[in-house]
Amino acid sequence: VPCLIEMLRHANVNLFPCEAPFEVLCELAAKRDMPQGLVDLFCLELLMRGRLAEAEQAANEMTSSVQLAVLGCGALQRGACQASIDHFEAALLRLKKETGKRKTFFDDVTGPLFILALIGSGDPGMLDRAGEHCAFATGKKQWPHQDIYRTLPCGTGGRNGERDRAGDADPQWCAPAGAGPPAGGDLPARR
């Protein structure tokens, strides 16, 4: 199992296909008696493979920060920014309890997606929080997806007070609840 976990995590960071280990993970998930770490990995793998409904179903227990964050990703995909932010905020609180750290952030793909939800809200307070989270991730010596955080609108300008005004950004990928994602706004699927 540790080897399986490492192969899938490495594939996630480098965004390359990893079918055989994923098939083993699916077989383990079918038995329904997995440790929480494998459940979390399964949820993330389903999310990264574009199997959103399955990822949300697997995360429905909401017992970990990863499961709550996956539900936040699902809400973001549907364009429900506030619901997405609510799930991510609950996930971040749970992550702080899980790690025992007062300052931490998501170290997987859900982190940048949380930032997108915050930016998509258009709320100046949420934009500030997005900037704080980006500053945390980019301020670490090593943190997954630092390149993504640096390219997000909050990655540098938000820390220096140079970001666009909330109304100027017009985030098209975060529509009113129920409107669904815009054309071409789907999360990239990994096969």
Give the helices and strands, then pairings.
Elements: H1 2-14, H2 19-30, H3 36-48, H4 52-59, H5 65-77, H6 81-99, H7 110-121, H8 124-139, H9 146-151, H10 166-169
Helix pairs in contact: 1-2, 1-3, 2-3, 3-4, 3-5, 4-5, 5-6, 5-7, 6-7, 7-8
3D structure, described in words:
The chain is built from ten helices and no strands. 61% of the residues lie in helices and 0% in strands. The chain starts with a helix and ends in a 22-residue tail after the last helix. It has 191 residues and is mainly α. Helix 3 packs parallel to helix 5 (65-77). The longest helix is centred in the middle third of the chain and has 19 residues, at 81-99. It has helices spanning 2-14, 19-30, 36-48, 52-59, 65-77, 81-99, 110-121, 124-139, 146-151, 166-169.
Count of DSSP H/I helices: 10
Approximate shape = globular
Beta-strand segment tally? 0
Mean pLDDT: 79
Largest sheet: none
Q: What is the share of helical residues?
A: 55-70%
SS class: mainly alpha
Oligomer: single chain
End-to-end distance, in Å?
A: 21 Å
Short précis:
By secondary structure, the protein is mostly helical. The protein is built from ten helices and no strands.
List the defining traits of the structure above.
single chain, 191 residues, mainly alpha, 0% strand, disordered C terminus
